[in-house]
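Subgroup meeting minutes
Present: P.N., E.W., G.H.
Scribe: E.W.

1. P.N. recapped why we're keeping a running log of single-chain structure predictions: easier to compare across weeks, and new members can see raw inputs and outputs side by side.
2. G.H. added today's entry (124 aa).
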Amino acid sequence: MSADRLRDGHRIAQLLASELESGASHGALAVTDADPDVEPTTDGTLAYRVLNTETDETIASVYVQPDRARVEFRAAPAAVAEAAEEAGLRVRPKAAEPPQTIVFVEDGAQVKRTLPAFAAAIEA
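Output recorded in log:
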């Protein structure tokens, strides 16, 4: 059964972008600065940014690694961390100014579980 799991960071990021662009999660989100030819690296390569269209602020950046996608949230780090943890995702703080929260999307099945974190970033 584990062979059926999607663990390709590039494809996971594509699925997440499609979910965000569909408006199913929150109509105020848009994918911007997308690089469709992005190559995953161990440290992560920027694939795109996620914009809150109501405020024109970048709320997150999505990076691709060979086996996962990494979402670095700039908006509402505490609310995002709580929402992502409740959804069963791996989360860690990022030492940056201002503080950020990193959410790891390690399987294609986890894409929909990131949506509450994006909602928390918008609502906070």
